[in-house]
Predict the structure.
Amino acid sequence: MMGMLEKIVEWGGVKRDIAFLIVSAAALALSLFRPAGLPVDPAWVAIVLCGLPIVLEAVIGLVTEFDIKADVLVSIALIASVIIGEYFAAGEVALIMQLGALLEDLTVAKARAGIERLVDLTPSTAHVIVGGSVQTVDAAEVRVGDTVRVLPGETVPVDGIIEEGQTSIDQSVMTGESMPVDKSGGDEVKSGTVNQFGAFTMRATKVGEDSSLARMIRLVQSADAGKAKIVRLADRWATWIVVIALASAALTWFVTGEIIRAVTILVVFCPCALVLATPTAIMAAIGNLTKVGILVREGDALERLAKVRRIVFDKTGTLTYGKPEVVAIETLSHANEIGKDELYALAAAAEASSEHPLGKAVAESYRCAYGKNASASSDFEMLPGRGVCANVEGRHVLAGNAEMMIEREVSGFDLASAECYVSQGCTIVLVAVDGAPAGFIALSDTIREDARSTVASIGATGIQPALLTGDHAQAAGRIAAEVGIADYRADCLPEDKLAAIEAYGRSGERVCMVGDGVNDAPALKKAYVGVAMGGIGSDIAVDAADIALVHDDIAALPHMLALAKRMMKTIKLNMAFSMALNFIAIILAMAGILDPVVGALVHNAGSVIVIVNSALLLRWGVRGRRRKGFLAQALSLESSAASAS
């Protein structure tokens, strides 16, 4: 029995619905021009194919959950039409109801298509190197630490680090970058991205459910518009409408004695447009956001987002890139024989073999600044918690902290000039050459290029920005000043961020929190709406948030906030329109102006209009948008939204 049900479900879907609609429409056309001699009205085909599923669903809902919704009223209207011999009206109601349901399904499917494509990107196989030979295995069987071979044109099966080979990777699915990114040994690659040119081998670091693509898919699967509170409100209204419709139909029949008027009231009073008003708008808005790299876990998040009055940012990885870069190189006054360029080159060469993030940052910043790798070093030694030492072009180089210099008996560092960098939150790497102090390198987390414009755009909408960071006051103040945030708090532990969000709540401000790290997870969960940086953010932060920025593009935030408000306007318009149309049609039905056939057309035309209006959200604000020009378009989008309101 279960196998038969599974086959029925498998056979069902959009193709079956379209086939039923075509056959039913043909049958109704034949019924309208019914040839003489036909023993049965052809409208029965539409009643059976389109109406029977509606009646069965209504009966199941009543019996199992006493669920009084739109299907109950539709079923009563169908049965009443059949009883009084209005077979064409019954068939027409069933046909248009199923047409409305099909349009809803297509709208929802289109809305989810952008994120559902991630599921299709999951590769089914991977080439694993075992004992020197390449074996093709199921991608799900790859384990952390396995060596995987990726050929040109293939999709990367798991997250990992390139060990051998050079290539270009198309990362547009995960990051939105339009151009391929060059990759070589030591670079990270993510599952779901496409290898453009050369073959390479990689060491798997995240596999299965832990991979980047799988994490995004989990967000897709959790996107459910049915969770929104406003949807439940519409359902409650539908329940009351069923009761009112039955009472109105009975009263009209009692007063006029015409059962056809009562049946018409049941037909036009079906609250389908009202029930469709919210979920179609929410799913269309979710589909819109996927086009700009935003994944929404549940529709309720967008409803709540429209009510937000303050947006709180974490600093590191959110307003900044989350990785240090060299911002200054200074030589000491008594070491003038070593210039800044030479100091930088010696330090970068010594740090080139370092595994420490600061050491890597020095070497990478040098490569970016000069367009070449640092010179080779010898006798490299890494001192945990201190720094590195190495021989570079015949000179002995030390690069590290003050403790290292003291232990190596290097004295004479005059760091007065470094104080200004320290006060701005920079990290200082001291450099000594041949046992004598030579200078220092200042590193700092750099602000995102679009941070200030994004904050300004958000502030222009009436939503107040704030900064909560664990950094000390000097660094927090510098970042806040540069991006244009007046309200900031420094030295925040996770519990401090929670307390701050609670304080905003007590003052009547609903808060949207934007963060990326593990320490942001409690605040993301506590906030009215949590937004996580999906690319560089931790798994815990993403799981705690309601919304994820797939490619960490904070410039998408103004569009997201504007779309949430637009979505609520669309929902309210849909509800107002559907209620007004229903009551006008009821009055006309009571007066005998509408019969069941025309009533069905009017009512279901309203449902179609609601669905089409919601579908407009799919392209609202994103038509013709290019990622490189996203910020400017977001700003103009906000301006138009503000003027419209």
Remarks:
- Residues 87-120 form the longest helix (34 residues).
- The first strand starts at residue 125 and ends at 130.
- The chain is about 50% helix and 20% strand.
